[in-house]
């Protein structure tokens, strides 16, 4: 039994997208009327073909603008096995992990706020305590790849780690800075991963479709010091359409 007409149209458009005949990411698909004329098909048939392309993530609709070819993205693979090394900033480590590609990170946006929810719980704080948050946006090849926010007890600033409030990346890394300034030495961490729908801020930053069909992966890392006490929470959000993760397990000899 031959494929229905809409499927044949969809497959032809898919081939044209993959070969570049219809242009690269961001290129507008021919209008519905143009597709009807080209394939001598009804409006519903053309719409069914475009819906199939949308469901495969090949095109996306933009309200009031039309339908556009989705930009093809070379997935970035992140290792969750190892933490960045003390004495090296997260920005430097991030750049080394994407060798051969252009990595950029925004300067931290600093906020002082009340400790609430899971951040307060995991840091062992009360709602009367405050935390310092350092928020950064990260890009690869000028494409938004992740959002990252790290929370530290405000008590660290009171005790002398005042550079946590400076909106600049630290060359030696914050972990090393805290070790030198306060004697807090990181000895381990726990990661909790969650797949969820993006919020409005994430959808806008990552350029995700409004219908929520592309999820985000949230990784919440709780780092502990030499006394097994949590001292920082790092929440990193990755869009699922351009990120992959690896964990390497080596048997102890």
CATH superfamily of the largest domain: Chorismate lyase-like
Structural category: alpha+beta
Q: End-to-end distance, in Å?
A: 59 Å
Largest sheet: 7 strands, antiparallel
CATH class of the largest domain: Alpha Beta
Which whole number gives the mean pLDDT? 86
CATH architecture of the largest domain, by name, is 3-Layer(aba) Sandwich
How many independent structural domains?
2
Helix content: 25-40%
CATH topology of the largest domain: Chorismate lyase
Low-confidence stretches: 85-89
Q: What radius of gyration results from the CA coordinates?
A: 23 Å
Total E-strand runs? 11
Content of β-strand: 25-35%
Number of continuous helical runs: 8
What is the element string, with H for helices and E for strands? HHHEEEHEEHEEHHEHEEE
What form results from the Cα inertia axes? elongated
Q: What does it look like?
A:
- By secondary structure, this protein is of the alpha+beta class.
- The protein folds into 2 domains: 5-69, Winged helix-like DNA-binding domain superfamily/Winged helix DNA-binding domain (Arc Repressor Mutant, subunit A, Orthogonal Bundle); 76-246, Chorismate lyase-like (Chorismate lyase).
- 28% of the residues lie in helices and 31% in strands.
- The chain has helices at 5-19, 32-39, 43-55, 90-97, 117-123, 155-158, 174-182, 200-206, and strands at 59-62, 66-69, 76-79, 103-105, 109-114, 130-140, 143-153, 186-196, 216-225, 230-239, 243-246.
- The strands form 3 sheets. Strands 4, 5, 6, 7, 8, 9 and 10 form a 7-stranded antiparallel β-sheet that branches. It has a two-stranded antiparallel ribbon with strand order 1-2. It has a two-stranded parallel sheet with strand order 3-11.
- The protein is elongated.
- The chain starts with a helix and ends in a 7-residue tail after the last strand.
- Mean pLDDT is 86; it is low at 85-89.
């Amino acid at each position: 039994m031959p494929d229905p007409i809409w499927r044949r149209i969809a497959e032809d458009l898919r081939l044209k997208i993959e070969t570049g005949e219809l242009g690269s990411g961001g290129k507008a698909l021919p209008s519905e009327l143009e597709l009807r004329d080209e394939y001598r098909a009804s409006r519903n048939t053309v719409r069914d073909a475009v819906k199939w392309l949308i469901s495969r993530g090949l095109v996306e609709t933009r309200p009031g603008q039309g339908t556009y070819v989705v930009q093809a993205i070379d997935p970035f693979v992140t290792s969750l096995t190892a933490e960045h090394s003390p004495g090296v900033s997260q920005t430097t480590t991030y750049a080394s992990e994407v060798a051969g590609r252009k990595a950029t990170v925004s300067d931290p946006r600093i906020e002082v706020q009340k400790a609430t929810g899971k951040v307060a719980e995991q840091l062992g704080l009360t709602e009367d305590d405050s935390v310092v948050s350092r928020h950064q946006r990260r890009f690869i090849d000028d494409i938004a790849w992740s959002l990252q926010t790290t929370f530290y007890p405000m008590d660290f600033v009171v005790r002398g780690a005042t550079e946590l409030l400076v909106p600049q990346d630290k060359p030696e890394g914050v972990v090393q800075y805290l070790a030198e300034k306060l004697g807090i030495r990181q000895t381990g961490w726990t990661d909790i991963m969650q797949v969820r729908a993006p919020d409005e801020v994430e959808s806008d930053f990552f350029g995700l479709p409004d219908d929520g069909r592309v999820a985000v992966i949230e990784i919440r890392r709780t780092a502990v010091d030499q006394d097994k006490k949590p001292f920082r929470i790092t929440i990193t959000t990755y869009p699922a359409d351009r990120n992959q993760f690896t964990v390497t397990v080596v048997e102890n000899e």
